[in-house]
Amino acid sequence: MSGIDAYKKTINQTATSRDTEYRLLAQVTSELIKAIDNQNDAKNDPKKMSQVASALNWNKQVWDVFVEDCGTAGNQLPRELRAAIVSLGIWVTKETALALEGEGDIDSLVAVNRDIMKGLKPEQATSASPQPQPSSAVGSILDKA
C-alpha cells in the first residue's frame, strides 16, 4: 500500500459523514466556480465546454446521491430535512438541465451548495449533543473525485 493509499484509508476511517459531505461539496463547488468563468467562452471552446458540462454533471451526481440517501432506511436525518434535501435535489436537476442548455444559473447552484456547506461545517458538528448522520452512500461518490 502506498503512502497516499494509507492516508486515504486513514482519512476515510476518521472522517464523519458530515466531513465527507462538506469536502465533496467544496470540491464540486470549486469546479462550478471554474465553470462560471468558462461559461461565456464555452460555445467556442470545446475544452471549456467540456469543463462546464463536467462540473454541472458532477454536481448533479452529488445531489442525486444526497436524494437517494434521504430515502434509505439508515438515514437518521429528521423527516423535514430529508424532504428539503429531496426538494433541493429536484431543483438542482432542473437547473442543471437548463445550465447545460446555456439558460440556467450556475451561480445559484454554487449558492445552494455553499448554504448546505454552512450547515455541514466540521466545527459545527462538535456540539454537545450528537448530530444525526446520513448513511454512508456519499462516500462512494467521493472515491470518484
From TrEMBL:
Region of interest (Disordered), residue spans: 121-145
GO biological process: bacterial-type flagellum organization
Keyword Ion transport annotated: no
Stretches with biased composition (Low complexity): 124-137
Classification via Pfam families: FlaF
Domain of life from the UniProt record: Bacteria
Annotated keywords: Cell projection, Cilium, Flagellum
Name recorded for this polypeptide: Flagellar biosynthesis regulator FlaF
